[in-house]
Model the fold of this input.
Amino acid sequence: SRDLLEDKVISMIPNTIIVGKNAPRVANTTLIAFKNISAESLVIALDIEGYEVSSGSACSSGKVSASHVLKAMGLEENIVNGAIRISLCRCLNKSEILSFCTILKKVINKLYRKKKIMS
Done:
């Protein structure tokens, strides 16, 4: 499930980084960063669409500041600020994952458009 999600997100959304992709990780969780996107705005927008994700690491839930761990890994601030954590349950099927990816792309595009208008 996680690998399918990551592969689809990378192929559908430019400027996306899978944090720790080549490191040993928990099988049901991914940390995906979107360049020049506010994780807080993304979490809210996905919540409105019916999806629960969070920003930052599991041990920093509830904090608003950018992850010092991601910064220490050498990620740029404009990437760190756009990192969301997605946890998947075993019961998800391929079509549910693809539906999420489609909504995620729509939300990301909307946030990029909004950012351009505000600039």
